[in-house]
Amino acid sequence: MIEVKDLHFSYTTGFEALKGINLTVEDGEFLAVMGQNGAGKTTLVKHFNGLLKPTTGDVLVDGVNTRDVSVAKLARNVGFVFQNPDHQLFSETVEDEIAFALKNFGFEEDVIKKQVDWALNLLDIDQYRKTSPFMLSGGERKRVALASILAWDPQVIILDEPTIGQDHQQKEKLQQFIMQLNAQKKTVVVVTHDVEFVAECNPQVILMSQGKILAEGIAGEVLTNPKLAAQASIVPPQITQIFLQLADLGLPTDVIDVHEATKILLDRLRERQ
Amino acid sequence: MSVFEGFKFRKVSSVIHDLDPRVKFLFVCVLFAMAIMFYNLIALAVLFFIPLPFVFMARVSRQWLRSLRGAAFLAIFIFATNIIFGYFYPSFPQISGAVDTPVEFFVILERAAAMTLRFIVLIASFSVFFLTTSPDHLGLALQQSHIPYEFCFAFTTAVRFVPVLADEAQTIMDAQKARGLELERGNILKRVRNYIPILVPLIVNAIRRSLELAEAMESRGWGASEKRTNLYKLKLTKADIILVLISALMLVFALYIWLYVPIPSLTELLFPSTPI
Predict the structure, then answer these.
(1) Does residue B62 belong to the interface with chain A, where contact is any CB pair within 8 Å?
(2) CATH code 3.40.50.300 region(s) in chain A
(3) Can you tell me the ipTM of this complex?
(4) CB contact under 8 A, B182 and A87
(5) Which of A239-248, B121-130, B226-235 has the weakest average pLDDT?
(6) What residue spans define the domains of chain B?
(7) Domain A2-228 in CATH: superfamily?
(8) Cβ neighbours of residue A14 under 8 Å, at least 6 residues apart?
(9) Distance of CA A254 to the CA centre of its chain
(10) Which candidate among A35, A141, A264, B159 keeps its CA 20 to 30 Å from the CA of A65?
(11) Entry pTM
(12) For chain A, which residues lie within 8 Å of any Cβ of chain B, measuring from their own Cβ?
């Protein structure tokens, strides 16, 4: 469980990025952190594995104050997948890249081999095992980065903008994959701008603006509120926008799921016939 | 990283910022030459005070102090090595044989302090120059000193990308720390190796970025016109000419002192009667 208590954070430049955040992320929760650029999303999640320490306030991960332990220690339980895979890839082969963290954490040689095989298969990149990560495409590099975090099987997985630069098919795969992780009782925290992606996953959402939490709730509630969306500079999912525009016809305005929307429309059409 | 902060340009409107960069560079070079000329602690202490009025006039004292603070570690290192080598391998005319009297030790102390102060004077004067000269201005100065435009451009781009690289290095460090990398762990050799996961992505990204930048520039017509003209032309103002005169006077004065006026050392002043 991650508890954030009255968290304030200022960068050395004096810019106050977080202004009093209170939040609890339960074990096995799926949370999306949304909001405009510069709202403090990444700054907030960087506190979850101790990369940033609070200026004031506290962040507790499983009861341990992040001020008291090193990033390496926290990282064992909290995996953080950075937005740009090019900020982490450095090894000669994909295999070595994935083994890097496992070696840092002091796993035994045979466990490392097993986990690397598992992660390569999990993300469908086994065929690139001996390839240099620099030779891969953007989407593949992203999967290598993800595999290199999942390899040590952390309990909490933080993904910073996972859908950026992914084609539709990859995005769908990624979405299924994240849902699967969550189904295995992993805590998943996703920082994203992608409302369609969030609408399809329907997780808990926190909406941030100017270093504060603007709203908290399930995606179906938060993303369908046009006022909140405007405040956080996001637009509701397309399906919600259609329903909002057709509100005069008596259609509900809190629909984010395509299947649910289809069902409502079909019911309406049948009623008319 | 704070020593780099002290070399980053701050946009402030002041007389010093408006000076011609070529003239400012000349002034800093004169200070540099003077700092190299003198071994003497008292002379170097005087030199240290010369850039101070410029710092105050340019209103960059906070950043300037930060650059000094950033250089403190290196300064301490210089001081310590000078003392150690001075003690074990004394090469002063005043000291014959081993260092065994307090006065002899004071000579070594004074020399170490002078060497450290020389380093501080250099940092202090170059910091004022970089704090008050924008990279664009610097590029313009190089260009108008008839250096080929390609070199000027490469130079200003390099300066311009230093903060970007610093930011990127921080992100890469975070990304590797999040994978359990502990930079401070292990013996010296291991610690050096710990930096490989930071340096490889940093260099690869820098190369990638430079290729992208080149393509983006070419697609916007870089190098299309044979003869480049400038919107701004550097012209010497009255203040610039005054600074040139001050620099020249300082250099002449320093040369005179160096050649004809022996400056007493602190040891001679404090222990006039003790023969060394």
Answers:
(1) no
(2) 2-228
(3) 0.88
(4) no
(5) B226-235
(6) 1-144+234-276, 157-229
(7) P-loop containing nucleotide triphosphate hydrolases (3.40.50.300)
(8) none
(9) 23
(10) A35
(11) 0.76
(12) 46, 49, 51, 70-72, 75-76, 79-80, 82, 84, 86-90, 100-101, 104-105, 134, 148-149, 152
